[in-house]
């Protein structure tokens, strides 16, 4: 087992953790359905991207038929 050579003070520990906070997500509104979505990602609710590309919902049904 590794044993620490020096005790890390509360101050130094807290200074290290000062950079550990998570930044908040920055969602955009989907231009097609208005749902909140991640920037530069396909909309999870309607499958649109940049108002033109579409994930066809039938693709899921085709996989079910194949299985
Ligand atoms: Zn959408």
From TrEMBL:
Residues 23-34 have a biased composition (Polar residues). HAMAP family: Ribosomal_bL32. InterPro entries: Ribosomal_bL32, Ribosomal_bL32_bact, Ribosomal_zn-bd. One of its GO terms (biological process) is translation. PANTHER family: 50S RIBOSOMAL PROTEIN L32 (PTHR35534), LARGE RIBOSOMAL SUBUNIT PROTEIN BL32 (PTHR35534:SF1). Coiled coil: none annotated. Residues 1-36 are annotated as: Disordered. GO terms for molecular function: structural constituent of ribosome. It comes from the Bacteria. Keywords: Ribonucleoprotein, Ribosomal protein. It holds the Pfam family Ribosomal_L32p. One of its GO terms (cellular component) is large ribosomal subunit. Belongs to the bacterial ribosomal protein bL32 family. Transmembrane segments: none annotated. It comes from Loktanella atrilutea. The lineage of its organism: Bacteria, Pseudomonadati, Pseudomonadota, Alphaproteobacteria, Rhodobacterales. The gene is rpmF. The keyword Transit peptide does not apply. This is Large ribosomal subunit protein bL32.
